[in-house]
Specification:
Blueprint lengths: L3 H16 L6 H38 L5 H21 L9 H32 L5 H17 L1 H18 L11 H11 L1 H25 L11
Amino acid sequence: MRTTFPLLITFFIGLFMVGEFFIPHWRYQLVKVQLLEWGYILAAATFLLGLINLIQVNLPKVLNREQDWFHKAVMLVSLFATMIIGFVGGIDRLDDNQPYRWLFDYIFVPLNATMFALLAFYIASAAFRAFRARNIDATVLLAAACFVMIARVPIGEMLGAGFSNGLSSILGDWTQTWLPEAFVSQFMNWIMDVPNIAARRAIFIGAALGAIATGLRIILGIERSHLGAD
């Protein structure tokens, strides 16, 4: 019963939410809105569970002086300090010159920017491994990426304009009709607007199909990982 009852709830609620796309009756939509509000409440409760789990996992490691315990201690102290300052600030905590707003603007935002700045090195490393010309597809990807990166900076436009002007001075001005000075930026825009968007749409379609398949597996009870099963 501990497994069957949650599966039944998931099945009926999931089936009901799918029906909103096929049943436009206003009473049906009213019940759907009510269910969504209950879902928001449950989602908010998960933040409290996450907070409790964070403390349960990290506090024993700090007390036992396990590996990286100092970083975990800093995290817990920052967590409780932010919570206390936020509760004391009340509804005015987001106003200017408030301690909570100061913590957010001058501690959280710079740390967040630093973290994303460090991710640039991992992205560069992943790009170096992915752009190796091992086959035709990788070679095309490498050439397109190099061209887009060069075209994004002013020196790329300067090189393109210089090449176009040099070619027109040798072969005549008629070359400007099929190779204008701004051909680098124009070709770069074509790469971003046509093949890049086509590939992104294909990825989004595949992700949507995967989400639909996962949703059906959960509704039908085939996928039970959310219940703690193997």
